[in-house]
């Protein structure tokens, strides 16, 4: 009877995960969906402890509750305190923790299952995937944090990585095949998996990190599912597979929004060929504009669209931009935001950032909705975005970003681009938009120049 | 088991099907919290470990700690993100 109750609770928990994910994909129900899934998780954890059969020493209970208590406090505080711009790296960090958890389970359980090749396969698979997810997430975290600046590429890293991957498979298969219980081999495999995770993420550029995190996210899901196999635990299995498949799909959706096949992200197709294309990019005169002139221009506009990008997130200018919006609205200027699907450091990240500074949800327009409106717009203010407004994506088939959907800012009557310098964006190509007659450049750190702009606007009264 | 796996793969794909780009980050974060279910495995591991196996107990405790971090941190961060969408509706 006890077992039945346990299974029913696990079933219900699995249902909350599915419903939770479903509700998370709709803005209105998302918050409740998250809480629902969290509730299911708590139920699953309590069930696992309460319905365990057999003698368990108080020491073990003490350790479990202690670890849960400390984990809860640390996790809660970290999550509450982190700045919203730092969120992507935090997600990566938590993902790594989950991966490490799966890896540790594998390390410990290995000894209990020597000789049983089915269990050994499951354990080693879970451990290897968990380790790769852990070390990969740590590198992704360091990259987003700015601790590791550039993509580090060993010579022939693609071939090297593929070889290591094959090696991992072969080694794991060999351990299962021989049924060796040797700790040496176990730890060697563990170390190799960690190493692979590092080498896998290192060569990938910072702008592709969201995709990588999403991919590693689904890896950890898979590792959890292997754990479910091992213990014959349904909730781990369903939760893990669910995240594994949903995460993989989400990864592909993100890639599609950036028009970058997953293969290119992993194997870095932005290599040598594109550099040449960058050098032969359009040249010409760049018109510069200062905050005071721009203030006048904005003051007499009717309709302004702001295009926020990565630069805005880096400069933490989201509050200043809200201030700018408020002032302009007071002067009767219509202000909306055009959000490219991959604006910011993660898809949807820009929305969260702007929501943090109280920009209304209705003012954030998605690309398809806003593109027809540019033609009736007086001034477009591009803040720290580059590739997402590069007309080459539509006109130049040789461009590496050709085919990527972009915001049609060039249709507006005037276009102001705020950047720190003329440096190309992450695609490494020149943007001919900057050289057009309608375009004016506003150089400087987004937060600094926007603050100046707001001051100038206030002085205009 | 295999039955569940295949079913779940399709459920996962169906559920994510049409999600607006705006919600990618919270969704990823939410999914991230859900795979924290691996902590259940860590707990089961602890419950099945003999008291005198200190290495296993130690590693298991760390595993439970890390898993909890994943679960709690994941859900709280997701909640914070979504809180911001709600504020001014």
Question: What does this protein structure show overall?
Answer:
The complex is a heterodimer of chains A (461) and B (89). Chain A is elongated. Chain A has 18 helices and six strands. A six-stranded parallel beta sheet of chain A has the order 3-2-1-4-5-6. In chain A, helix 15 links the parallel strand 2 and strand 3. By secondary structure, chain A is α/β, with parallel strands linked by helices. Chain A folds into two domains: 187 residues, no CATH class; 176 residues, TPP-binding domain (Rossmann fold). Chain B is mainly alpha-helical and 89 residues long. Helix content of chain B is 78%, strand content 0%. Chain B is built from four helices and no strands. The longest helix of chain B has 33 residues. Chain B is flat and about 50 Å long. Classes of the chains: A alpha/beta (461), B mainly alpha (89). Chains A and B meet through helix 1, helix 2, helix 3, helix 4 and helix 8 of A and helix 1, helix 2, helix 3 and helix 4 of B.
Which terms would index this structure?
A: alpha/beta; Rossmann fold; 2 domains; B: 89 residues; mainly alpha; flat
Write a short abstract of this structure.
With 461 residues, chain A is of the alpha/beta class.
Question: How is the secondary structure organized here?
Answer:
The complex is a heterodimer of chains A (461) and B (89).
Chain A: H1 2-24, H2 30-50, H3 58-81, H4 87-109, H5 117-145, H6 157-178, H7 183-201, H8 209-231, H9 234-258, H10 262-267, H11 272-279, H12 291-299, E1 303-308, H13 310-315, H14 318-330, E2 334-339, H15 349-356, E3 364-366, H16 367-370, E4 379-383, H17 392-395, E5 414-419, E6 439-443, H18 446-459
Parallel strand pairs in A: 1-2, 1-4, 2-3, 4-5, 5-6
Helix pairs in contact in A: 1-2, 1-9, 4-5, 4-8, 5-6, 5-7, 5-8, 6-7, 8-9, 12-18, 14-18
Chain B: H1 2-16, H2 24-34, H3 38-47, H4 54-86
Helix pairs in contact in B: 2-4, 3-4
């Amino acid at each position: 009877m006890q077992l039945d109750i346990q299974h029913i609770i696990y079933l219900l928990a699995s249902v909350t995960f599915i419903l939770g994910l479903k509700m998370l994909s709709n803005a209105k129900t998302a918050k409740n969906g998250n809480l629902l899934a969290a509730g299911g998780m708590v139920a699953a954890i309590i069930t696992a402890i309460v319905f365990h059969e057999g003698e368990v020493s108080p020491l073990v209970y003490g350790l479990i509750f202690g670890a849960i208590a400390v984990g809860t406090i640390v996790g809660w505080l970290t999550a509450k305190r982190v700045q919203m711009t730092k969120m992507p790296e935090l997600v990566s960090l938590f993902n790594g923790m989950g991966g490490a958890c799966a890896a540790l389970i594998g390390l410990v359980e290995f000894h209990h299952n020597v000789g049983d090749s089915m269990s050994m396969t499951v354990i080693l698979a879970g451990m290897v995937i968990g380790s790769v997810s852990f070390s990969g997430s740590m590198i992704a975290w360091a990259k987003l944090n700015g601790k590791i600046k550039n993509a580090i590429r060993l010579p022939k890293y693609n071939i090297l990585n593929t070889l290591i991957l094959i090696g991992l498979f072969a080694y794991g298969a060999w351990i299962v095949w021989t049924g060796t219980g040797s700790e040496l081999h176990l730890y060697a495999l563990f170390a190799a998996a960690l190493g692979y995770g590092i080498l896998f993420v290192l060569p990938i550029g910072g702008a592709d990190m969201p995709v990588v995190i999403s991919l590693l996210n689904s890896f950890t899901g898979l590792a959890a599912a292997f754990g479910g196999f091992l213990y014959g635990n349904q909730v781990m299995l369903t939760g893990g597979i669910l995240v594994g498949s949903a995460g993989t799909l989400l990864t592909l959706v993100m890639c599609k929004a950036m028009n970058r096949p997953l293969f290119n992200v992993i194997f870095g197709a932005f290599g040598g060929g594109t550099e040449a294309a960058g050098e032969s990019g359009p040249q010409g005169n760049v018109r510069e504009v200062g905050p005071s002139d721009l203030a006048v221009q904005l003051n007499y506009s009717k309709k302004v669209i702001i295009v926020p990008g990565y630069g805005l997130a880096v400069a933490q200018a989201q509050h200043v931009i809200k201030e700018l919006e408020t002032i302009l609205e007071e002067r009767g200027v219509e202000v909306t935001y055009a959000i490219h699907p991959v604006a910011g450091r993660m898809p949807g990240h820009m929305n969260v950032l702007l929501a943090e500074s109280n920009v209304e949800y209705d003012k954030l327009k998605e690309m398809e909705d806003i593109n027809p409106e540019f033609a009736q717009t007086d001034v477009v203010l591009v803040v720290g975005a580059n590739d997402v407004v590069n007309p080459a994506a539509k006109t130049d088939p040789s461009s590496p970003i050709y085919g990527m959907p972009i915001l049609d800012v060039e249709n507006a009557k005037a276009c102001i681009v705020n950047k720190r310098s003329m440096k190309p964006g992450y695609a490494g190509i020149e943007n001919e938009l900057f050289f057009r007659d309608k375009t004016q450049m506003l150089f400087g750190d987004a937060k600094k120049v926007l603050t100046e702009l707001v001051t100038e606007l206030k002085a205009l009264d | 088991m295999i039955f569940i796996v295949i079913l779940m793969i399709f459920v996962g794909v169906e559920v994510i099907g049409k999600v607006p780009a705006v919600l990618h980050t919270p969704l990823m974060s939410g999914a991230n919290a859900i795979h924290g279910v691996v902590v259940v495995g860590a707990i089961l591991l602890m419950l099945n470990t003999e008291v005198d196996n200190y290495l296993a107990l130690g590693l298991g405790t760390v595993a439970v700690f890390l898993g909890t971090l994943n679960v709690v941190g994941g859900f709280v961060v997701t909640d914070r993100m979504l809180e911001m969408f709600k504020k001014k509706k």
